[in-house]
Please model this.
Amino acid sequence: MTEPRSTARDAQIAKQRPEGWPVGSFETYQEAQAAVDMLSDNEFPVGDITIVGVDLIEVERVTGRLTWGRVIAGGAASGAWLGLFFGLVMALMSGYWFSSILAGLGMGLVFGIVGVAVPYAATSGKRDFTSSTQIVAGRYDVICKPERAREARDMIALKAQHLKG
Model:
């Protein structure tokens, strides 16, 4: 049996805002996930549940300074790994191990360095730092379809009551 293909309608549904009644609100995603897991363990139809991140903010953490040396070293390293891979593939096909691996490494270094140097030069020093970006939610709400919301809310509240007392 084959899996059904995703359609444009499925994509449109996925982009809609979630609907339902709130049945629990949690400070972390792990707490919200644990609540849904508890509902699942109690055979609640979790297909009616959605976890929604609320009060979203984008956080960009600066991780270091970007210099020409770091750019070239990073490009050389990633290019060398890719070149080594292609060199090994060429060696397996041709039987010329040393020359194939050396050629692959050389081409990987050149393309790796050029591949990072050109975009870095194009920025003209406007972004001389590295960073990582993530989306962080202020809280996580668990919502449920209205016809089962009261039951889900009561189950989550009962579990929270057991944890406190």
